[in-house]
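Re: the 411-residue chain
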Amino acid sequence: MILRLLSSVKLTIPLMLGLAVVSIYGTIKPRTMNLEGMEVARYELFYQAPLFRLFLALLALNLAVCTWRTITRNIDDLSRFGKLLENSADLSQRHTFDSSHKPGLLERELQQAGYATLRTDQGLIGRKGRAGRWGSTIVHVSVLTVMLGALLAETGFVGTLNIYVGDSSRTVLDWDTVAERDLGFTFRLDHFEPIYYPLDIRFALLDPDSGTELATVTSREGETIELPGTGHQAEVRKFIPEQKLLVLGIYRQGQYLGEYHATPNEWRASQDIRLNVKLVPTGYRDPMLKQLHSEVSIIEQGRVVRQGVIEVNEPLIHRGVAIYQTAYNRDKFGSWYAGFQFSKDPGEPLVWLGSITLSIGLLLAFLVPYQAVALVTRDGRTELIALHGFRDEAGREAFIELLKKLEATTA
């Protein structure tokens, strides 16, 4: 009696209605403030509330019992069909063949129609679409798997860290506890730079002694141009707007000589470069940020065990902890620092698995109909009896189609 109640739809519907009411109210309710005048998060107020969790727990129990009963039902199909055949007078959808239709030929035709046949004490049972029989069970198990994954997520954490280039940290600020959490490894930021879409850059060629402007050229990152009056070519390799730093690759007659670094106030060049002019960036188009690029190291027991790159939407994952790039800035001294989010969700694989199997289960349940029939021979005549899958209008039409195929089998 208790198991029947726990697996009943009469319990499922009130639970789902209760969850829906709480979810709707939690969505449309105005903001709620606590005694300190701070806004209370809807997630904490409603979806972490004991009543909501109780509804979820009861729904999980309801699904678990229902799943156990459907698994038992699927396994005991042959036994259940045997009991139906013992009282076959109650089965209305049936057809009796005349003596010209031999049982062996009917069985062969049934197999050609896609039915797997099995002989029992009550007669021959044919089943088709057994994968569809398990579709609803797979759906139930999938939902339970997703719920278990969500429960395991409670053991994970989300934390943040702002860190300067060259610094390292073993802890992050945990969002839930608002306290430092040990990562189990040390995180070091080796290099950071914002990456922009190619910029149009203007720079001048100046006389190194008098500072007189000799020429002005305009180019963009990735292009190579002639430097007027020098016999050299310059490839615009990089321009860093925050520092107004222009990085050029210098060539002469196709031979690479080295890099030339220039800002409005200073310049530096490889020793093989002798231009007899000074290159100074004088203008550029407003930059458009393309990506944030961080090079990091993971340190365990005093040694680097992993190095990698973190960019927006391209996290680094180490020991189940996903590290995301979230922010960046420069302090008043011109030093870069970057922000990272550290997230660990032990239940994520189960949620993904449950979502995939849920889709598979739904496809099986709706696209692969489970049908079962019996061929029973009495007094020299063979009777076809529908056992499962022929109830509605489509099922009755399928039974008629099956009869047409079997009727074509003659002695």
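Residues 229 and 319 are 58 Å apart (CA to CA).
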